[in-house]
Design goal:
Layout (H helix, E strand, L loop, with lengths): L2 E5 L6 E7 L3 E4 L2 E5 L1 H7 L2 H4 L2 H13 L7 H12 L7 E7 L8 E5 L1 E2 L2 E4 L1 H19 L1 H9 L1 H7 L5 H9 L5 H13 E3 L2 E2 L3 E4 L2 E2 L9 E2 L2 E5 L2 E5 L2 E3 L1 H10 L3 H7 L4 H26 L1 H4 L3 H4 L22
Parallel strand pairs: 5-11, 6-14
Antiparallel strand pairs: 1-15, 2-6, 3-4, 4-5, 7-8, 8-10, 9-16, 11-14, 12-13
């Protein structure tokens, strides 16, 4: 189905990798990203492989306690003294919404061919989280009873997962057929990678909600900037859905297959989003968190619109900014 994806706030879906700040050179609010191997290749071997330099790094690393020069700063100084960035090929560019990143660490956004993407698996996971939430909300008392049941914990062990609880709710006999069905059900929803164009380098701050302690300083993040992308990113395999409907005559199958419908999916993800939104509004009422950072108007700007669904994607953010 044709999908229009509007990225309303910066999105970070990380690779798990962290880059050094000196891999980015900022000019006129544009950060140019260079490959680490190209940068290090510019440093003379007699400097980079010098044993005294290595010993100095080890000594700094063992003694550094947040004062003086850190190991990364020592390496950065060597880079500054020997590397001419104008002679290096750029990997990609980003808008820069932060100060000079040279001495920072930077969380890397996942990409394909140096173009940022939102992976289809991330979209699919967010949608299934909303479906799980909908099931739990509709069976909340039963869900709570299972969690509180000593007998249930004894029979299922200490590591009880959401999937286990939902299985117990939908399939009271907890059969293997349910597991096989759920595997096939998940494969009916097909989410493709969403290719994007614009990236922005942003500072990440995390505050204690009541401001009782200082903010946490986290690595900078490469983020997908606000933009709109169109394509067939979310689809339902109708043939497989029909086959499952014909071959598995169980209540749980009818319940789950009902979610494989465009209007139903939009309704479910909006239920999840707006319930979380209500909690964030309550947080603001209690602590003035959004007022403090002038985001209250953004918080209250969302409303249900026919055919539109909202999903929170990515890390290093709360729900709405």
């Amino acid at each position: 189905m044709k999908t229009i994806i509007t990225i309303d706030t910066p999105v970070h879906v990380g690779t798990g990798e962290t880059s050094f700040g000196f891999e980015y050179k900022v000019r006129n609010n544009i950060a140019e990203k260079y490959a680490l191997e190209d940068i290090l290749g510019f440093v003379p071997n007699d400097v980079l492989l010098n044993s005294n330099f290595h010993k100095k790094l080890l000594t700094i690393n063992s003694n550094y306690q947040g004062q003086g020069i850190s190991p990364s700063e020592q390496i950065t100084n060597v880079i500054k003294n020997h590397v001419n960035y104008s002679e290096l090929p750029k990997e990609y560019i980003l808008k820069c919404g932060t100060e000079d990143p040279t001495n920072k660490k930077i969380d890397v956004q996942i990409k394909a061919l140096n173009k940022p993407i939102i992976p289809g698996s991330t979209m699919k996971g967010a949608i299934f989280n909303a479906i799980n939430y909908h099931i739990i909300k509709n069976n909340f008392n039963q869900f709570c009873n299972l969690i509180d049941s000593n007998e249930y914990r004894r029979s299922h062990g200490n590591k009880i997962t959401i999937d286990m609880l939902i299985k117990s709710i939908l399939d009271k006999d907890e059969t293997n057929q349910y597991d096989e069905f759920m595997s096939q059900f998940r494969s009916c929803l097909i989410c493709s990678d969403i290719p994007c164009e614009k990236l922005r380098l942003l500072e990440v701050e995390r505050y204690y909600i009541d401001f009782s302690k200082d903010k946490l300083n986290l690595p900078l993040s490469e983020c997908i900037d606000m933009q709109t992308v169109e394509g067939n990113f979310i689809n339902i395999n109708e043939d497989k859905k029909t086959l499952l409907q014909k071959t598995i005559n169980k209540h749980y199958a009818n319940t789950m297959l009902d979610y494989l419908n465009k209007d139903k999916l939009i309704s479910v993800i909006n239920d999840y989003f707006f319930d979380m939104l209500a909690e964030e509004k309550q947080v603001n009422e209690d602590y003035g968190y959004y007022d403090e950072f002038n985001f209250k108007n953004k918080l209250y700007s969302y409303s249900r619109e026919q055919g539109n669904g909202y999903l929170r994607i990515g890390a290093n953010t709360n729900y709405f900014f």
